[in-house]
Amino acid sequence: xxxxRLATGIWVSAYLARLRLSDIPVFVTxxxxxxxxxxxxxxxxxxxxxxxxxxxxxxMTGARTWIVLAEGDEAEVDASIEKQRRFDPDLxxxxxxxxxxxxxxxxxxLAD
Length: 112
What we know:
The protein is of the alpha+beta class. The protein has helices at about 10-20, 75-85, and strands at about 25-30, 40-45, 50-55, 65-75, 90-95.
């Protein structure tokens, strides 16, 4: 039997709250399916560079982890996001703006 999962809209709300509590600016740039939409997190370091994170499932262990889907020039990362959005219109895109590149995705409750 599959393990119950938190609805995406609830996870996104909690993630936004955690970032705001850490005084890290964050914006939802594309709202996806409230129940089961996938999430991309763009880390914008405000210097023309960005990194795009996607949640992935490790097939060997069953663990859910965040991986880097794209990294480099912000325009190239944005192009990657648009490509993913054309493939999956239910996709959420969250943009985190932090010069140090903090996303908090490695913290307990967000990392797994």
